[in-house]
Amino acid sequence: MRRTRLFLAGLLLAALLPALSGSPETAEAATVPPWFSNCRIFPSNNFWNRDISALGVHRLSSMWLAKMSTGRKLHPDFGPSYGDGPDYGIPITVVQTGHPKVNVTFDYASESDRVPYPLGPDTRIEGGPDSGGDMHTVVIEQVAPGDCRLYETWNTRESNGRWTAGSGATWNLSSNSLRPDTWTSADAAGLPILPGLLRWNEVKAGRVDHAIRFTTNVTSKHHLWPARHDAGSQATWAYPPMGARFRLKPGFSTAGYSTYARTVINAMKHYGLVLADNGSPWYFQGEQHAAWPASLIAELKRIPANQFVAVETSNMRISANSGQSR
């Protein structure tokens, strides 16, 4: 099992452009995130970008939550480290077309995308190259305006110009296509990491319109669409599977929370959390950014896990091999 404790440095570009139109398969365009121009993060009809506030509660919700340490409070796995290494969060590297690409040797090559990756001296590795943690990389390549590709690796190492990683995956950010079923990615769920990261500029702008990635410590050996892979220790469905989506109860009061915290809380009510990896219970992930306010991080630690329910997402699925949703 992989734990996601994140010590990071990242590269962010602030820009805000109109939403871009997609191909016939992905005609609905997602809002362009303000931290990177010319790239959508999957179409607006993608699973990650759908409002799930009206969905029913999953029939196994209570059973799953009973196995998930709901006596805890949520833990934002990003923010200032107060001088103890780099700030927390998953770093994002942005490159343009023409960036040199390298071949990567994968430990799990049969489930990795064996294509050249735009890695180099400018690549930010989670926790640093010698951290010994998950050492994810998240790299966005802008091929052309509106045409962007995502590359992600896990357990990434470099020595004398040679790159190795535990696993790697790539996505066309304008497409709803999923990985082959049973294949991992840089995440245990076989999902992309990027769309589930909470990002400072969207919180600052007051609009978070996507689900947020989170972890728990004991999971099932099953996965739910659109997850493609699982890494659990329990054969029973009594434990939460990868891909399960959890929503903050609508009646949870935002009284006493700041404007920034209310933005995050509202996102949890409307878009929820997606179980994407094994790790500490109720740790949710965000990008590394030096501007995360310490006061906001403290506020988010007050959100109780027992105010969440699992939602039934099966009716969202249109095709087993597509992230497009109703």
Supply the key terms:
4 helices, disordered N terminus, 326 residues, six-stranded mixed β-sheet, four-stranded mixed β-sheet, globular, mainly beta
Strand content: 15-25%
User: What's the shape?
Assistant: globular
The ordered H/E elements are HEEEEEEEEHEEHEEHE
Number of domains: 1
- Poorly predicted runs are 1-35
Assign a percent range to the helix content. under 10%
Give the termini distance in whole angstroms. Answer: 32 Å
Describe, in plain words, how this protein is organized in 3D.
The chain has 326 residues and is mainly beta. The chain has one domain. It contains 4 helices and 13 strands. It has helices spanning 61-66, 200-205, 259-270, 294-300; strands at 75-76, 93-96, 104-106, 137-144, 147-154, 157-159, 162-165, 167-172, 212-216, 245-248, 273-278, 283-284, 308-310. The strands form 3 sheets. It has a 6-stranded mixed beta sheet. The chain has a 4-stranded mixed beta sheet with strand order 2-4-5-8, with no helix packed on it. The chain has a 3-stranded mixed beta sheet with strand order 3-7-6, with no helix packed on it. β4 (137-144) and β5 (147-154) form a beta hairpin. The protein is globular, with a radius of gyration of 18 Å. The protein starts with 60 loop residues before the first helix and ends in a 16-residue tail after the last strand.
